[in-house]
Structure formats: C-alpha cells, structure tokens
Write a structure and sequence with these properties.
12 helices, Rossmann fold, two-stranded antiparallel sheet, five-stranded parallel β-sheet
C-alpha cells in the first residue's frame, strides 16, 4: 500500500538526486571533443568554448580514426562533429563515436540545409544539429540542452517544418490527422508533448515517475496510432499539429 510517507520519501529522494546532479555539474565542466577537418575552424571554436568556465575542450580531431581514438580515451560528454570531413563522411562516424563512448552525446555542426540529411543525423543517434552560421549563444545553448538530455534541432529547420503545415493539403488531410490524434490517450499526448520538448526517454520517465520501459511501450503505441516511424517524424507531426510547442 502506498502511503503519504512513502510518496514524501520518494519525492525527497528525487529532489536530493537533482540537487546532487546540479552540484556535480557546477564542479565538473562539460568535456567536449571537436571533430572538424579545418584547423582554423577547430582553433576558433576551441578558443570560443574555452572562454566558458563550464566547458572544457578535451581534444581535437581532423578525421574519423583520430576522432574514434580520442572518443575512446577521453570519453567526452559532447562531440561537436562536422559532417564534411573532406574525403570522409561525418554521417558514418556517428554510430562509431557512440560505440566508442556510450555516454557521449553528438551535436552536428553543418552547413548542409537538406532536411533529409538532418533527419538522417537524428536517426543515426545525434542529439543536436546546429547550422555553422548559427549565433554563438545558440551553439552554447545547444551544448547545455543536449548535455541535460534534450534534443536540439536547428531553429530554421523547425521554421521549415511549421511552414509546411501552413501549406498542408485541404480538409481531408486535416480530418485524417485529427482522427489519428483523437486515438491518443491523455498519457500518450503528454508524452508526445515531452518528446516535442526534446526530452529523452530517461528524462521523461523521471518527470512522469514511470519506468523507461513504460515510456518505450507508450511510444510504440503512439508511433502506430499516428503512422510515424521514429522520434524525428513524431516531433515533426507534433509541431505541425500543435501537440507540442517548438523550443524558443
């Protein structure tokens, strides 16, 4: 039987764990590995990042072999990865980085604006995507959010997603989408909203006080009901149909 004391104890434990994580975060900087084949860009990015006391660049790599070696030895919190590595493909490097450093979170820095490329990056396991011409403060914000367990998509990409909603095909398509949305339970709609905020399963489970397995089960049901194949398509659907608000 769940008592008031039990609930209070669980709540106190959660608050204590969050406070402990915040203290650790303040004491230990976020470790970052930069992967880019241009030495000047690596130098400039490192110089900027190291002006932030909460960040620490632990290595630079100009190709996949050195990137994988550094990821293995340094186990960075964040990898900033350029998709264009000269003769090599940054796409192919993402799974290898995640295998070499399982707790690492990859943020892709790219000049590529192709939505299909953006989708592939997320499907391969990257948790962030930032265009190279993005203002510095947004790059720093992306690092902070991704380190906290959220997904960060480029703002112009989200604007493009919302723009497609404005040009959606007539009432038949809108009615079909509305019918799909109506099949969602209250809990499933809540999870869709949290996915739209960029939260990962572990964070969602903590916020809703449920297990990660339960979150995965809900997502399986949501994918089937809405006719989407993955989290990326779910985020697109959520933004287009106002089930979630894009981050500011």
């Amino acid at each position: 039987m769940i008592t008031t004391d039990t609930l209070l104890g669980s709540f106190t434990k959660m608050v204590g764990q969050k406070a402990e994580k915040m203290m650790i975060r303040q004491l230990v900087p976020i470790s970052i590995l930069i992967v880019d084949d241009h030495a000047v860009l690596r130098f400039g990015l490192r110089a900027i990042l190291e002006t932030q006391p909460q960040l620490a660049v632990v290595g630079e790599a100009n190709d996949s072999s050195s990137a994988l070696a550094l990821a293995t030895t340094q186990q960075p919190d964040i990898v900033l990865l350029d998709l264009d590595l000269g003769k090599e493909n940054g796409f192919d490097l993402i799974p290898g980085l995640l295998d070499a450093a399982p707790n690492t979170r990859v943020i892709v820095l790219t000049g590529v604006r192709d939505p299909a490329a953006h989708k592939r990056v997320v499907q391969l396991g990257a948790m962030g995507l930032v265009l190279k011409e993005t203002a510095l403060e947004l790059i720093l914000k992306a690092i902070d959010k991704v380190y906290a367990g959220e997904v960060w998509l480029d703002r112009t990409m989200i604007a493009s997603i919302l723009n497609t909603r404005a040009h959606a095909n007539g009432s038949h398509e809108q009615n079909a989408r509305a019918a799909k949305i109506a099949t969602l339970t209250e809990r499933e709609r809540e999870i869709v909203g949290l996915i739209g905020e960029g939260l990962r399963n572990k964070v969602i489970a903590e916020r809703l006080v449920i297990s990660e397995a339960t979150v995965r089960n809900h997502l399986t049901s949501i994918f089937a009901k809405l006719g989407v194949d993955d989290r990326f398509e779910l985020v697109v659907f959520a933004y287009q149909n106002q089930l979630a608000q894009p981050p500011p």
